[in-house]
Amino acid sequence: MQYAVLTKCTNLDLLAFTPTIIIGFYTAGNEKLFSANTEHFKQAFPHVDILGCSSESNINDILPHVDHFQCTYLCLNIKKEAYAVSIIKAGEDTDLYPFPDNDPAAIIFSTDYSELLDNTLETLNQTEKSPTYIGAIAGSSLDSDHTPSLFCNGTYYKNDAILLWHINQEFYTLSGISLHDFTPVGSVFEVTKTEEDKIVEVDYKPALDAIEEMTGPLAQTNIDAFDYPLFIAPKKESGAFHTPLSSIKAIDRERKTIEIFKKTKARAKFRVGIPLSRAVQEMQLKKFSRFRAENAVALLFVCIAYKYHWRNFEPLYLMRIAHALKLPFIGLHTFGEIGPLSLDDVTQIQNQTVTLAVLSERKEVKCVF
User: Fold this and answer.
1) Contacts of residue 100, Cβ cutoff 8 Å, sequence gap at least 6
2) CA quadruple 161, 263, 137, 245: dihedral sign
3) Are 303 and 350 in contact (CB under 8 A)?
4) Which of 18, 59, 162, 237 has the smallest C-beta neighbourhood within 10 Å, fewest atoms?
5) What is the pTM assigned to this prediction?
6) Which tens digits make up the pLDDT trace of 214-232?
């Protein structure tokens, strides 16, 4: 497997290989630049597949890690028979298992958090084999009106669409995990009334009143820094062992409602999260070292909440990840991540995680007699 990380598409003749697939991340609003670069790639490599996902900002493996480039690309030369690409749209049939004789695996991108994504992950997790699905929800700036989008071979998708990059694990291995640095505390609450992505009532009380009875007043500065995520339990039939985080987006003191990034329904149970100690955070980051491999590259999906939570210290946090990983990687700030919270868990939609996907080439096993 040959690879190269690019931040511009000039001097492509300097590449020592012909890429078969290019994964690109572009800051939302820079679709024209991404399209122009795509045309340049296509002129040089007519048979290349080009996939893309919008971001709030892009990430790479060189300090300070959060880069100022509007576009970044991972060029790969992998066997054509080792991958497949599909787009899922509501009401359309899509082959979710193009490699039925192998453990299913895919990098997955979604335009948004939707019922389509929920249903797709539920279907994918029901396979008898051990699926590996890791990915991200397309991002954009919180204070802009740019719509998150996906790109697949010349077409942009901006609403209710999912992009799957299937990996044939006979040739390559896909592995990874989602990590966060919070722990649940206090009583278990029950959501008793919702309106779209707002929690209206908790334990039959106004939602904000119910939570602040335990936590005290939720300061706006702490909400802006994503200091109060909620551990909201998934549906019983999801098969998940671990409870994912759901970030608080805003509060309405007049209506006493809480708006979150992931939609939830009445009867859902949740607990409030607080940051882990520094020592435990260090232990968490070391888990990434398990995924080191020879001839491997990585994709890093970092929740936009991390950027606001860590602010100027985020490059230092990413530096720790790079040190633990010791692999080349590109990444993006997302509106949500997709992955398991442990190696024996199912894939879930996450908030406030760093989610890692590592693609490595399988070694040939030689028999010696």
Assistant:
1) none
2) negative
3) yes
4) 237
5) 0.93
6) 889 999 999 999 998 999 9
